[in-house]
Amino acid sequence: MTKQMIIGMHLGNGYGSQPGAWRMPGVDPKNFASFDAKVRYAQAAERGKMQFLFLPDGPSHVGDIGNEAPHFNLDVMMTLAAIARGTERIGLVATGSTTFNEPYNLARSFKALDIMSHGRAGWNAVTSSGEDVAANYGQRIPSSADRYGRAHETVQLVQALWGSWGKDAWVHDVESGRFANEDQIQPINMGGKYVASRGPLYIPPSEQGQPVIFHAGGSPNAHALAGRFANVVIGATFTIEDAKAQRQAFRDAAEHAGRDPDEIKFIAGMMTTIAADRRAGLDRKIALTGRTFPQRVRYLEQMLGVPLDPSRLNEPLSKQQLAAARPSPMDPRSRNALKIAKEGWSLSDILAHGVIDYHPSIVGPGVEAADHMQEWFEAGAVDGFWISPDVYQDGVDAFVDGVVPILQERGLFHRDYEGATLRDHVGAPAQYGIDPRV
Amino acid sequence: MTKQMIIGMHLGNGYGSQPGAWRMPGVDPKNFASFDAKVRYAQAAERGKMQFLFLPDGPSHVGDIGNEAPHFNLDVMMTLAAIARGTERIGLVATGSTTFNEPYNLARSFKALDIMSHGRAGWNAVTSSGEDVAANYGQRIPSSADRYGRAHETVQLVQALWGSWGKDAWVHDVESGRFANEDQIQPINMGGKYVASRGPLYIPPSEQGQPVIFHAGGSPNAHALAGRFANVVIGATFTIEDAKAQRQAFRDAAEHAGRDPDEIKFIAGMMTTIAADRRAGLDRKIALTGRTFPQRVRYLEQMLGVPLDPSRLNEPLSKQQLAAARPSPMDPRSRNALKIAKEGWSLSDILAHGVIDYHPSIVGPGVEAADHMQEWFEAGAVDGFWISPDVYQDGVDAFVDGVVPILQERGLFHRDYEGATLRDHVGAPAQYGIDPRV
Question: What CATH number was assigned to the domain covering residues A6-275+365-426?
Fold first, then answer.
């Protein structure tokens, strides 16, 4: 069988990845607090055979709370617990900070999730870099060296704790009265410069043994951490060339750590507004984000290097403006923005194309998303995508019904889950406790 | 209406509170890892209109793992998340250490539970005193002064974070596009000697505003902490006299903190083996715990102050032994043990009465449990009980069908939930953020 792509879905605040999602028709504006809604969206993604859900986490609240919902779930682990109870196959991945959590607490909650989901848990181990997050813990953000130093120790400790109840330790034999094999339940007695734990953790293996490690980050420190521990990288990149370079950096880092580079998958972000046609997609995006356009025009000016008039949103750029425009080398989105501008779209429509979104944005019919994904995947730039639907209420179904079948038809995406666990879904090799190779 | 008692249920490892529960007929020996089972037992308690479930937590593993299950849930919060999704009315209370958790993390997970359960969450805020627990965090147990110092700060911070999104802050008005009232979302900027947080927490109020504070402990420090913050005390006591004294100490402490003493409820522990008659109860208890009797005889010797012969378990104490016996003043269970011994039961049956259990133990028909509860309750010794069924698989139903109806018949226990939230169930007054009185 030819290689197929992995697709994950971002599941955030209960509304969607675009500002204004909470106000869209059909959306319950109380979904921020609705676990029912999040379970429903997870089920929709599972219907599309997506390999995993990804719940990023701050934890902090920044942004325009007067007009927009916080980005994150109330509590990512509690949300995934609810979703674990309401789904059967899809992987469940949450961000957990190595800087602001005790290893023992991380080990316990993620392995409990792994048990309750029957082997579908993944931990996106990140160091947290926001001072706003640190302040919630009465701290300042440590240096990158200290953060990554602690991250290395924390992941090792957590994996050691996961393995501290040996693979076959849990006997539960009623006949003999033997509950567990004590010889296979051992303290870990590990400690370093930053964290320590005696252990053992008192949780037996899940169907996949232990959770899968994810990482998100782009620095050399991130490459080293992910290369050593991660099976999946949650990437952010705007071009095939950059994606290729990033993917290679992580593969090199894995190899450097003594692992097979195919054990680490690079997954690029993508935002979706799937609609019947481009025009319908743009109109939907305008309804979602139009309120922010006057302010986004200022960004676009910098990206294109020409003055733009926020009061003339419905007009395309003039010939003079297009001729004078120079994509900013500081922003990788600029070339795409200029390309769209040259197609003659109005200022409003240019912005509606998502040229300033956090990830490449598809606004239009499903086939355009499928084409984008095929191009990147076949170029060897990515092992898959994590998509951020604009509005969960109908945007997940739009992707599942409008994009997934095309990818399946083209042989690029599986028609059903091959296995039962997240390890199966992302091709992560069996592991229990610390990987002896790294 | 006359005052009625509160009843909570201990929900531990998935088997029951007695060693050997995991091996009993009808019990799935894999229940330690089964969230389905725990949800089922919670539903049974809810059928009995119990006010809350109580999930204690170590977190550590100590004990005879070769023969017995760990006492605690894999992860109390993940377990309660599953139970929140599978129940409607019963309160959900878990222990969370103030020593080994960051206030921001505690605030977030408990308030998320409160939201997902529609106002049924309670936090048993304890300081943790076991070196085995501390070692899992690479630490030693701090002094009592430091632990309680941190506990006071932590509860205050957590409550401040709970109130940092004001009661009416969440507008979610689609028409006007106003998501929240920024004026009511404020940083807390609190910090003391031990912990600090800037906030705000980004979670709106639940149906009960914020979770209810529980506490468990018996020292003067515990009285002061509970008197200031708690609405329910998870007690441990063996006699009416002691229970009265403990209850009064907590009430005095509440008054000292400027609160109405009726705002704090003292709930005593009770273990149950409910059966058709006393003999059937004793036989059930022997099946559950008989394996431990030879070693428990050694305890009983100390309690009664006479030598006993572990090889003659089936014989009652001799007249000489009974005459020589002196209940140990060090162990409040001793007088009851001697009383049982004098009734002529065999050594095995004496132990099967649960005379060395962690709480007063009822082994026999439901009416005996009801009588015990009525006596204590009407003596003003307790505001209610938290029961620990011997085996969840059938022990919860045995209590619900064998004890609850008698209590209801006698007017001692409600016939249905009066309200929807845990605050309603335990008579805790409305509170949002920090109680201004304390």
Answer: 3.20.20.30
